[in-house]
Design a protein that fits this description.
By secondary structure, the protein is α+β, with helices and mostly antiparallel strands. It is built from three helices and six strands. Mean pLDDT is 76; it is low at 74-91.
Length: 165
């Protein structure tokens, strides 16, 4: 390796150039076949909000499925016809595939509620810097069916569904 400032050859464990005294840790230059290659620390690391949102959506889908499973497992099996024609489940929030498909990026929570006809269940909420992210869940009318809508600063930024008809 060579110093990027003065070009003096460096030992691999040197933190400062013995020629000019500059730090060699932030960026080093190596010469290979007469060409220069810069090493950029941190390049290639995945950072930002998108991976975090993907993780949150995945967790919410799993939590929603577990909650729905436990709710349906604990229901009274003798009343199977009681809510057959009901438009809401025990959480008061059913969604159909048609309603899910009407949800668009940029809509407000109120717009989504107007499409579905009921409030969702707040499954997750976090604030990082100037961004507040909320994920609401609506359940379908069959076992395991659900939809998650992700809002960032009050606007839809993503949605996911499983098993809606």
């Amino acid at each position: 390796m060579f110093c990027k400032n003065c070009g003096k050859e460096l030992l691999s464990d040197e933190k400062y150039c013995s020629g000019c005294g500059k730090s060699v840790l932030s960026e080093q230059i190596s010469y290979t076949n007469g060409q220069t290659a810069k090493k950029d620390k941190g390049k290639g690391k995945i950072t930002g909000i998108v991976p975090g949102l993907i993780l949150i959506v995945f967790i919410v889908i799993i939590v929603g499925f577990v909650n729905l499973t436990s709710t349906q497992t604990n229901s009274n099996p003798t009343n199977t016809n009681e809510n057959k024609n009901s438009s809401t489940n025990s959480n008061g929030a059913l969604i159909t595939l048609d309603e899910f498909n009407k949800i668009e990026t940029g809509m407000s929570y109120e717009d989504v509620v107007n499409i579905i006809g009921s409030n969702g269940t707040l499954s997750s909420e976090s604030s990082i810097g100037n961004y507040t992210t909320q994920i609401y869940t609506w359940y379908g009318n069959i076992f395991g069916a659900n939809a998650n809508v992700t809002f960032q600063n009050g606007k839809v930024v993503g949605k996911a569904q499983a098993g809606l008809h």
